Amino acid sequence: MTLPQTVAFSRNSANVFFHILTQCNLKCRYCYINPQQHGQHTLPLSTIQTWLEAFSESSHKKNLIFLGGEPTLHPELPAAIRFARKMGFGSITVDTNGYLFHDILEKVNPGEVDTFSFSLDGATRTTNDRIRGKGSFDICIAGIHEAVSKGFNTSLIYTVSSANINELEKMVPLLKKLGVGRFFIQIIGLRGRSASKEADTAPEGILQVERRKWLDTVPRIARMIAESGITVSYPKVFLNPDEKFECAGRVADNYFIFPNGRVYRCPLCEDFPIHSLVFKEDQLVPAAKLNESDFFQLNIPEGCVMNKLIQPHNLSYREDGRPEYKIACCLLKEEIRSE
Ligand code: SF4
Ligand code: SF4
After folding, report:
1. By alpha-carbon position, which residue is closest to atom 6 of ligand 2?
2. pLDDT the model gives residue 270
3. CB of residue 21 inside a 6 A radius of ligand 1
4. Which of 75, 70, 76 is nearest to 94 (CA)?
């Protein structure tokens, strides 16, 4: 029997999520990118290199994830990858929608990129393309095949919402067929387009999945996927009142960098100008107060403060006013290793 393990937060490794541009060829319905808050330009290679250097001194293991927008739209992504390798980043991942621009798979090799991580939001063309755009399912599948055939490690990200949770089970045979190494289930957060008025009027109604539905569906299907030989992780989301709550902003080392120089420690804060760090003249310095780091210090019975501020409909209270459960940090994951 495969059991989920909570992946504990650690300060012994740093995770750098680097959005090198916000431009994208797709227009996914629930895209979390917010160009007004994140900037609209493409970072030149020299800036990418200088900003990466800001993290090079840490003696801890450093994991780097290149993101966008669509990071393969950046013509100098291969050079950025090679520079990061030289700077000592222990693992390098490229998150892609599968379009793999600029022949990226021809320009880097599996020794340079640890993983290409693809995104699908449906197990069928109909559901995925309704969310991510016409044609995106077939292109993503073709991109995965190509990456696998060239010897790259691949993973797949599936963001669960009310629009696609009913298709999660169908991912089990599809993942097997594709030959991806890992599967990441995410939960939709109300950020970017999913927080917009447009999303409020989506045919599915409220996008976030109700607690009972999540608990009845996601851990069960994650187990099935692990039993089929693929390591899977998914957000913990709900904590019992007696389970320990920890805010990654206080106890882990994550950095979410955007082209306008903002650096957040918490993804739920990214729609607001409350980043705790900023690149100013290429130096990484603390941002003006009040900022997200002030929120991280608040202890509330509901768990995550940002969740209570931006997604309060997730919460439920007993008659005496105490919360029925706590909301975990959005970065807290359960992992089931393949058998
Ligand atoms: S979610 Fe990703 S692939 Fe979709 S529009 Fe946004 S950046 Fe592009
Ligand atoms: S999601 Fe909540 S708990 Fe996690 S870092 Fe952000 S504020 Fe802290």
Report:
1. 266
2. 95
3. no
4. 70
Q: Of the bound ligands, which one is closest to the alpha carbon of residue 306? A: 2
pLDDT in tens, 248-259: 999 999 999 999
Q: In this structure, which ligand is nearest to the CA of 267?
A: 2
Per-residue pLDDT, 192: 61
Burial class, 171, CB count within 10 angstroms (exposed 0-12 / middle 13-18 / buried 19+):
buried
* CA–centroid distance, residue 52 to ligand 2 (Å): 24
Query: Is residue 335 a contact partner of residue 219, using CB atoms and an 8 Å limit?
Result: no
**pLDDT of 149-174, one tens digit each?**
999 999 999 999 999 999 999 999 99
Counting the structural domains of the chain, the total is: 1
- Distance in Å, CA 293 to ligand 2 centroid: 10
pLDDT at 311: 87
CA end-to-end distance (rounded Å), the chain: 9
CA of 181 to the centre of ligand 2 (A): 28
How far apart CA 262 and CA 277 sit, in angstroms, is: 6
CATH code: domain of residue 141: 3.20.20.70
pLDDT at 313: 86
Rounded Cα distance, 176 and 180, in Å: 7
Which residues have CB under 6 Å of ligand 2?
A: 247-249, 266, 268, 295-296, 304-307, 329-331
Among candidate residues 284, 251, 291, 238, the one with its CA nearest the CA of residue 269: 291
Note down the domain range covering 221: 5-336
Q: Which residues of the chain have pLDDT under 70?
A: 1, 59, 190-206
